[in-house]
Write a structure and sequence with these properties.
alpha/beta, seven-stranded mixed beta sheet
C-alpha cells in the first residue's frame, strides 16, 4: 500500500453481500469525510445512495462481465459545473482514484483471496460529464496494481 492508511478505512457489508459473495453484481460505494479524511466503503448488491452527498465525489464500482471475462467497472461523476470547476473535479478524481482503488482492493481483501484471478481483471473507469473534454472511458490497470 502506497497511500492507504488502513486505520482510516471503514468497511460495511450490506444484506445480500458477504466477504466472498457474490461476484457479478457486487457493488462498491466509496465515500469520504473531508474533515477527517476517513474513507467509507460499502459493499452490497446495490449502491449505497444514502451515503452520497451533493458534492458527488463518491466512487462507485461494480463487478461485471464482458464477453465472459470479469471486469471492474468504476463510475465517477465529473459533471458539468462550468469549465473551471469541472476541470478541477477531473484533476482531483484522477489524483485520488489510485487511493480509491487501493481502498476497494484492501477493504475487500478476503474476496480477492477467495478469487485470486480477479486480481488480474481489467479496471475500466467511466468519467461522466456533459462536457465532452472530460467524458471518457479509460483502462486503469488491474486490482493487483493497487494492493
Amino acid at each position: 500500500m502506497e497511500r492507504l492508511d488502513p486505520e482510516k478505512l471503514s468497511v460495511t457489508f450490506e444484506p445480500g453481500a458477504t466477504a466472498t459473495e457474490p461476484i457479478v453484481g457486487r457493488k462498491y460505494t466509496l465515500t469520504h469525510s473531508d474533515k477527517t479524511a476517513d474513507l467509507f466503503l460499502t459493499i452490497g448488491l446495490a449502491y449505497a445512495y444514502d451515503e452520497i452527498t451533493t458534492m458527488r465525489d463518491e466512487v462507485l464500482a461494480e463487478w461485471q462481465t464482458y464477453e465472459g471475462t470479469p471486469l471492474l467497472y468504476v463510475y465517477v461523476y465529473v459533471g458539468q459545473f462550468g469549465p473551471v470547476i469541472t476541470a478541477i473535479r477531473d484533476t482531483i478524481f484522477r489524483r485520488e482514484l489510485p487511493l480509491a482503488l487501493e481502498a476497494i482492493r484492501y477493504g475487500d481483501s478476503e474476496f480477492f483471496m477467495e478469487y485470486p484471478k480477479l486480481d488480474n481483471a481489467a479496471i475500466w473507469i467511466y468519467f461522466d460529464s456533459e462536457n465532452p473534454d472530460y467524458k471518457k472511458f479509460e483502462y486503469w490497470g488491474t486490482p493487483k496494481d493497487y494492493r
